[in-house]
Write a structure and sequence with these properties.
The strands form three sheets. A five-stranded antiparallel β-sheet has the order 1-2-7-8-9. A two-stranded parallel ribbon has the order 3-4. The protein contains eight helices and nine strands. It has helices at residues 2-68, 106-109, 118-130, 137-145, 190-196, 220-225, 235-243, 258-264, and strands at 84-87, 92-99, 104-105, 200-201, 213-214, 268-269, 275-283, 286-295, 303-309. By secondary structure, it is an alpha/beta fold.
């Protein structure tokens, strides 16, 4: 009898242990499923908030334009130039805007036909030098954009470089579609792209149309690269100092810039038309980011040149 009672006790303990294990597993699965469900909902909400942030950025740009009252300038002193954060109830959204018009358009500095606008080409070469990039970097970019098969002295065409990579690919032989595309070009390392991002863009008014540079928002390195005479002296510092308190409405506003106003005419302006909006939304632990490059803000429906969500 004692043996039977001992055996029954062992069986009871084993069954109890199994039941406890099954209960723990069940509770764990319910917790995991519930967590996944909450995370999915939070992720979806964050994505929607990020998209709404882009719409909010467009409205902020339109409001800034109204405050200018039709004046032919845009500057870093306006409301759009400062990051904006707000509580959306279920989460938060941070909107930041930068003017692509204050950067050098690399599509104007290169050309599929191999004959770019001299002003933008020379400005790009000076800018790359100012940023301490390798001397052959511009040639690699020019080869990527032109549709010829003969590489420049230090450039790279399909058969001479990209076809030897693993995996191999072809050069674009056309205008750059996005800034991120530069990562495919020979020599454009992540470090190069990080330094170049604030000074260069690929977005202009359209194919074959040179993109003027807004002197009110161009960074110091690009200002110095616009003309050989700006590379020395204190003219760039004078521009930056003037911009701290009021926008430049005419190139002649800056003492010393009058002599360059004629050569810079149509290439350098005081008003931008293309903007990059970045909206970051947070809901719980979920983060979603939306980026858009927009233009034609005065139209009922602005033109979206670029859109990315991640």
């Amino acid at each position: 009898m004692r043996g039977e009672r001992g055996f029954a006790l062992v069986i009871t303990l084993i069954v109890t242990a199994l039941l406890v294990a099954l209960l723990v597993e069940f509770v764990s699965e319910v917790y995991v499923d519930t967590s996944h469900s909450h995370n999915f909902v939070a992720s979806q909400q964050a994505g929607i908030l990020a998209e709404s942030g882009i719409a909010g950025g467009i409205q902020l740009l339109k409001a800034s334009a109204l405050l200018r009252q039709g004046q032919p300038y845009s500057s870093l002193l306006e409301p759009w130039a400062k990051p904006l954060s707000y509580d959306a109830g279920v989460g938060s959204v941070t909107i930041s805007i930068e003017e692509e018009s204050g950067k050098l358009d690399l599509n104007s500095a290169t050309s599929p036909t191999g004959t770019p606008d001299p002003f933008y080409q020379e400005a790009a070469i000076r800018l790359f030098k100012k940023l301490e990039f390798p001397a052959d970097l511009y040639e690699a970019l020019a080869d990527w954009a032109d549709n010829g098969d003969i590489p420049r002295l230090s450039g790279a065409e399909t058969n001479s470089f990209y076809a030897t990579l693993r995996p191999p690919y072809q050069s674009h032989d056309d205008r750059l579609d996005s800034f991120e595309e530069l990562a495919l070009v020979k020599g454009f390392t992540p470090q190069v792209l990080t330094k170049l991002r604030s000074c260069a863009t690929v977005y202009g008014p359209g194919a074959g149309i040179a993109a003027p540079i807004n002197i009110n928002t161009a960074p110091k390195e690009l200002l110095a690269a616009l003309d050989d005479k700006l590379m020395s002296g204190n003219l760039v510092d004078a521009i930056l100092e003037y911009r701290k308190t009021k926008p430049i409405k005419n190139l002649n506003d800056i003492t010393g810039l009058e002599t360059l106003a004629q050569s810079l005419a149509l290439k350098v302006v005081c008003k931008g038309t293309i903007y990059r909006i970045r909206a970051e939304a947070k809901v719980g632990e979920s983060v979603s980011v939306a980026e858009a490059v927009v233009t034609n803000l005065g139209a009922p429906k602005p033109t979206i040149l670029y859109w990315r969500e991640y």
